Amino acid sequence: MKLFNSAVGPIGFIVRGVIGLLFVIVVISQFFIIKNLKQKLDNITILSYEDSSLVAFSPNSLDENVLVVTPEFVDNFNKYNSPFNDGMSFNELVDKYIKNWRQDHYGSLRGTREKRRIHEGIDLFVPENTPLYPISDFGIVTEVSDNPNYLVTVNCTREDGTPDSVKIEYGKVVRILYPEGIETLYAHMNEVNVELGQQVNGDTQVGTSGLTGNIRRSGKGSHLHMELHDKDGDSFDPRWKLRFEKNSLQHFLKYLNIDE
Questions:
Q1: Staple partner for 179: which of 8, 77, 82, 186, CB 3.0–4.6 Å?
Q2: 8 A C-beta contact, residue 116 and residue 166
């Protein structure tokens, strides 16, 4: 037994020494990793909004989870493209595909005398089965229907001025939410190629233009009915948003003195 213990003792000592050395190495490496991470955090400045003012602070001062987006994210995903992925500007789309300036734009009157509503989008008259795409480089499908008789609830006003709502046959539809918080609704589609909850990009063909819904009885030709909606679900005139193409957060940051 003494010979056995004398043989094991030196081995155990060596093992304990190796474990101790590894522990020291781990501690030292973690120290430098933490130091490196701290230096990286010191290089980050977070812009926020508090008490009607723009404020800048370091991640080291955070006590809760915060989602940070880069200027590149804002500039890339808050710019909008043609729904036909053809590189045309909104003004060019309107000039080429709007047929009736009084009827095909946002806000033209629709419905009956008893229930008056407005046209909540624009009608772009493109050939049937024209491929359709998101208007931004990233989006999430928030509503989709492959039903050619699908009904959408829209606001209207009764003859006495009382607010009301009415269901309109939009046909096959796709609604897409973009990072800025606005949504597009495409209606009267022939084909739908996406699913609810699907993440899409600017090259995702979400479907094709067509003749579904109430336009089959209207005498109108194939077109894309496109609406824009805010975070409350209210529609607004696409001309308010899509005419402007030069937004740039990075341009603003060039003039912002964060150190002050």
A1: 77
A2: no
